[in-house]
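Pasting two entries for a bug report.
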Amino acid sequence: QVQVVESGGGLVQAGGSLRLSCVASGSVVSINAMGWYRQAPGKQRELVAQITSGGSTNYADSVKGRFTISRDNAKNTVYLQMNSLKPEDTAVYYCNYNARTIFVGWRDYWGQGTQVTVSS
């Protein structure tokens, strides 16, 4: 069993910053890629940023230069630093882990989501 919990969402004015955190706990043996996705009302969930076990990163074009993803492997934690926020960044942000546990092979785990609202 793996629990994935996000934190750090909230309400911020346009141009402001937020830092999201996500931690995985439970019977985790190894974690491959970690990522952040978001879903705005009426839209499909989309990839925001991803970081591999080797530290390679990938960003959606809409957030390049504004968002930074990082990870702390010792803490099974992934972060998303969001700067220069825009109203169009408003969405529920979900954390995703590709992990292997003692009992289950590689699979994806999702957090419950954290709301980010950017006011104009």
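Entry 2 (this is the one that rendered wrong in the viewer):
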Amino acid sequence: QVQLVESGGGLVQAGGSLRLSCTASERTFSTYIMGWFRQAPGKEREFVAQINWTGGNIFYADSVKGRFAISRDNAKNTVNLQMNSLKPEDTAVYYCAARARVIDPFGLWGQGTQVTVSS
């Protein structure tokens, strides 16, 4: 089974940038739809961004449009989330997730990486 490992979280000041990466353990990753989700303290997990296997279909939550960019490198089994103009409300644990088809739920999850934005 594919395993997902996130990296790149940390502490940053408001207005700063961070780049998260998610690496999959198997080559089958290249056919998966990949997503990023986040969960802030006391809140439910929410969708952030999604990218299909070709990179041709990308979706963002309204709260991050224009500030975050998702991309993938299938040769490296990696999906990235570039986060710019960070706000304190972006503070959360960020999770990478995968699903085989658009009709499937996101069934594969990473362990999460903490992003903290100070004001």
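Dev reply: Rendering is fixed now. As a check, the viewer should reflect this: The two ends are 40 Å apart (CA to CA).
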